[in-house]
């Protein structure tokens, strides 16, 4: 895609706080996310496994949705008989969107507060992708194997589906030209919509009872590393195309994620602490990320 990203990073930063008008496009539709993260990128099962393999699983976080529809779906067994199954699961007093009673979620990349200055604005503390260099506004893993498929093809999927892109939102809010080509590429990976997404981009948590307390913490924006590890493990252990989970794989991955201690996880702890003090020097990124081993960016 031909896009002008210099000085922007609009798809990687929650810039709503500095926008001239309010934007809430992710809060439309029949189901509301439990979190308030803006533009949380849905990772594929392969993406999640790759982050796990390179020791960056602590950069990941889940998204779940409320479901107040009281809808039911028809489920058939191998003998051909069918029954109505409630498409939600109640945890911590919240009705969650679910399949066969198992809460539905996807996995994205955490967005801690960072001191950034997109669109030539003054530096502000804004939720920012864990892998975005706050100084160059470039992705630290752009040329790495772990770079997510959704990011690599953005905004191709939006254009393919006739949906507005973040490039266009930035243009409307701050001026300039960001989307230089509005034709989607001929070669795009599968969009993974509907049933084909199950176990590939949309996952289910195998046991709702294990999420007691987790949903409450998610609503309060107080998820722990252990909470997030549960969803990474469930995504990797899910059986593509089904709502089944390999429990042995789940337990193995859960232990591995809990032991993850990357530069991302360590830097997020400091970013969150610094944001409370509202420090105002963007160069702190060198100490917070670079000195912890964050990959460099090339600059513009």
What gap, in angstroms, lies between the N and C termini? 18 Å
Low-confidence stretches: 73-85
What class, by secondary structure content? alpha+beta
Total helix count?
9
Order of helices and strands: HEEEEEEEEHHHEHHHHH
- Overall pLDDT level: 88
Radius of gyration: 20 Å
Q: What report would you give on this structure?
A:
By secondary structure, the protein is α+β, with helices and mostly antiparallel strands. The protein has one domain (16-64, 105-285). It is 26% helix and 14% strand. Strands 1, 4, 5, 6 and 9 form a 5-stranded antiparallel sheet that branches. Helix 6 packs antiparallel against helix 7 (247-258). The two termini are 18 Å apart.
SSE map:
Layout: H1 45-53, E1 60-64, E2 72-76, E3 82-86, E4 88-91, E5 94-99, E6 102-109, E7 113-116, E8 124-127, H2 149-152, H3 156-160, H4 166-174, E9 203-204, H5 214-219, H6 225-237, H7 247-258, H8 263-277, H9 284-288
Antiparallel strand pairs: 1-6, 2-3, 4-5, 5-6, 6-9, 7-8
Helix pairs in contact: 6-7
Q: Can you summarize this structure?
A:
This protein has 300 residues and is an alpha+beta fold. It has helices at residues 45-53, 149-152, 156-160, 166-174, 214-219, 225-237, 247-258, 263-277, 284-288, and strands spanning 60-64, 72-76, 82-86, 88-91, 94-99, 102-109, 113-116, 124-127, 203-204.
């Amino acid at each position: 895609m031909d896009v002008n990203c210099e000085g922007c990073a609009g798809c990687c930063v929650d810039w709503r706080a500095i926008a001239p008008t309010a934007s809430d496009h992710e809060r439309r539709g029949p189901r509301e996310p439990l979190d308030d993260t803006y533009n949380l990128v849905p990772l594929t099962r392969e993406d999640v496994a790759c982050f796990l393999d390179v020791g960056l699983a602590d950069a990941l976080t889940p998204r779940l949705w409320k479901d107040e529809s009281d809808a039911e779906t028809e489920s058939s067994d191998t003998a051909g008989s069918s029954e109505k199954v409630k498409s939600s699961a109640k945890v911590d007093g919240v009705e969650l969107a679910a399949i066969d009673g198992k809460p539905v979620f996807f996995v994205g990349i955490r967005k801690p507060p960072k001191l950034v200055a997109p669109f030539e604005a003054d530096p502000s503390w804004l939720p920012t992708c864990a892998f975005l260099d706050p100084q160059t506004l470039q992705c630290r893993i752009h040329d790495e194997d772990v770079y997510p498929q959704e990011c690599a093809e953005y905004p191709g999927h939006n254009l393919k589906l006739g949906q507005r892109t973040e490039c266009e939102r930035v243009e409307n809010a701050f001026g300039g030209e960001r989307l230089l080509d509005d034709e989607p590429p001929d070669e795009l990976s599968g969009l993974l919509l509907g049933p084909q997404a199950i176990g590939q981009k949309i996952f289910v948590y195998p046991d709702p009872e294990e999420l007691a307390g987790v949903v409450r913490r998610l609503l309060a924006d107080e998820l722990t590393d252990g909470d997030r590890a549960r969803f990474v493990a469930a995504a990797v252990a899910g059986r593509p195309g089904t709502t089944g989970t390999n429990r042995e794989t789940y337990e193995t991955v859960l232990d591995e994620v809990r032991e993850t201690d990357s530069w991302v996880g360590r830097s997020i702890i400091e970013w969150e602490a610094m944001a409370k003090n509202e420090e105002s020097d963007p160069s702190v990124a060198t100490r917070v990320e670079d000195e912890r081993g964050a990959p460099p960016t090339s600059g513009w």
